[in-house]
Amino acid sequence: MNPDKRRRLEARGWKFMTVKEFLGLTDEEAAYVELRLKLADGLWARRTARGISQTALAKTIESSQSRVAKMEAGDPSVSLDLLVRSLLALGTSNRELARIITAR
Amino acid sequence: MNPDKRRRLEARGWKFMTVKEFLGLTDEEAAYVELRLKLADGLWARRTARGISQTALAKTIESSQSRVAKMEAGDPSVSLDLLVRSLLALGTSNRELARIITAR
DNA sequence: TGCCTATATGTCAGCCCTGACATAGACTCG
DNA sequence: CGAGTCTATGTCAGGGCTGACATATAGGCA
User: Where do the domains of chain B lie, and which CATH numbers do they carry?
Assistant: First the structure.
């Protein structure tokens, strides 16, 4: 958000919080959610870099296009398991996986 | 295995294979299994380093002692999700998580 | 010896995640 | 315009993972 706009809104009594604060997450929960989002972004990056469609990826991991879309969207209904297995199916090495996790 | 013993056994017609070969796993599946084992080992290492029991850890993650034992044993009935969440509950940072993953 | 703690292993009802399907929007190309 | 592709989103029955429980083994201590 624009700093000026934020200042003006705060002057009028608005409060700003992080997603973590808003949802009342513990540190571990926040770290978990963050991790999922990083993997989701990493999956999208890897897939598009390879130039393959969600449907094509879905076939290689024996899933469906809709589930791939949910994965990349960070949908809560998708497990870490499936995210990681999808990344591995795209040929992601342990080192690359580690880089995705530590990305900021 | 002792190289001499192996040579003697091979001379008698025994064949040796990796777990991956034996189970007929694809590269991705093998990587997935390996990853789980690394996380399992990492969990055990972190827990014992903190000097807490499986029961104590189970309480903090709202699970049970038996499930923690299965986790550390690399039991197939345990999801990556639970493994990672347990590690995070032990205060494992992203960087440490990455180190566990890339450990050999 | 008996008691306590820690860990391993098996089982199971119930819930969460699964793939599949339907549908809609955005975009490209005839 | 219409047809095709790609992606997003909602729904659902069924299967996999869950916590809980029971039980066994091992080690420490009195």
Answer: 32-102 (1.10.260.40)
